[in-house]
Design a protein that fits this description.
One of its GO terms (molecular function) is GTP binding. The chain has about 190 residues and is an alpha/beta fold. It is about 25% helix and about 30% strand.
Length: about 190
Amino acid sequence: MNHMTISQAAPAAVKILIAGGFGVGKTTMVEAVSEVAPLRTEEYLTKASVGVDDLAGIGDKDTTTVALDFGRITVSDELVVYLFGTPGQERFWFMWNDLVNGALGGVVIADTRRLGTSFASIDFFESRDIPFVVAINCFHGHNTRTAEEIRVALDLDPHVPLLIGDVRRREFGKDVLLALVDHLMSLPAAV
């Protein structure tokens, strides 16, 4: 007689959306923190994007996310975090509505050289009452603004966590995700 063992229940899944403007480091953050090789939908920029994609401040960028980035972090046998990075260009924003379904929270990545590219992501999360944190990506240590100046420029509510660092560093990415978890836990429970 075969004895079947009871299999463990599947771990709980938590979905986090990583958003921000074109070229701010969303793909880079997903790559930095994912425990598996992330799914990327990067394509080379072509002449067709001239006049459509604003390369101001990111002139050496030659690829772009056209659908999503996907990564995974196993917290324990009971909990897995799935990261979904959004495409940054306005022409792909229609996808955000599908990507956000089921998301527990979000991360807005911003670049102080181009803070205006962050407004759409912040508005997106605020309009859907989705808690989020803001991660300022300091490209090569470049940051000319204080946290307070950034907070005022982005018109952030005082309760929204703001972190400054380099998303290429795994430790900074983990700090951002932990700040989001802390932020989620500090919010009043939904009735």
